[in-house]
Every structure is written in C-alpha cells, then in structure tokens.
Amino acid sequence: MADAKGQTVTIALEDPGGADILPLLLEGEAASATLYPAESNHHLPLDALRAPNVRFLVARDGEGRPQATGALVIADGWAEVKRMWVVETARGRGLSRSMLERLVEEARRAGVRTLRLETGIASHAALNLYATAGFIECSPFADYRPDPISVFMERAVDPPHG
Fold first, then answer.
1. How far apart, in whole angstroms, are the C-alpha atoms of residue 4 and residue 20?
2. Please, which residues bridge with residue 137 across strands?
C-alpha cells in the first residue's frame, strides 16, 4: 500500500519486542507522560503485548523502518485498540487511519463484534481519528475506572462481506 504521500508502507503482525520496535513503544509512553499523570496512562507492558490474545501490528516504510504501531487485545466478543503510535516524522501521511483500518480487519477476522478504546482528553488527533472512524463515547469498560481525563469509545465491527 502507499501512504498519503505515495510512499510504500507495509503493515504486518510483528513481535513488539523487536529491537527497532521498542523505541517506538518508549516514545509513545514518553509522549503520554507529558500529557497525563501516571495513573491515567494505561500502556500495556511488553509481556502483555506478547499474549496469545493480542495482535501487534507495525507499519514500515519502503526501507523497512518502523513508522507506526497498533495493537488489538481480543476479549470475549469485543477487543480493545491499544498502543496506537505514529513516529513524529511520519505524521500527516494517513498511517494512523491505515493502522486503525487494519486493526478493524484483524478484529473482524477474529469474530469481534465491538471495538473499544481509551484515550486522553488532550489527544486531539486521536480523538478526531476515532470519531471519524465511527467510534462514539461510552462508559468505562473492563478494569477501567471513571477518569475525568480519559475518553472511552466504542464502535461496532461490521461483519465480513461475502
């Protein structure tokens, strides 16, 4: 596939512990730490990202450099979108939308009926992405508690066509 600037991008399942992936995860955590207090950051640790019910995706440019990450944590009939991150130099090229679309595809293949997520009130680009992708606000889910700086969202996963 090509990004919004016509550059080649591939999105594939990968090990989140790859030597060139860990810096992206740390970069995302550091960015969250500048916006929100620790108790409002809900990043999954590496071992949790390697669990059998997790699909971890990496977008790479034509030279093989990681540009974005995203994860899908599959539960019973629903899944949570986690670890969406695009490196700063790759922003504005549609990678977050492409990653989200691929996560929706993974959810559909896994039989997931509902996608859910948590993000922060200061994450304006993320909130816009999710809203334009059909997510609507919902109540806290799973182990989350109400938090005035968290936004909880969900959307239905359309069944496969065919």
1. 24
2. 153
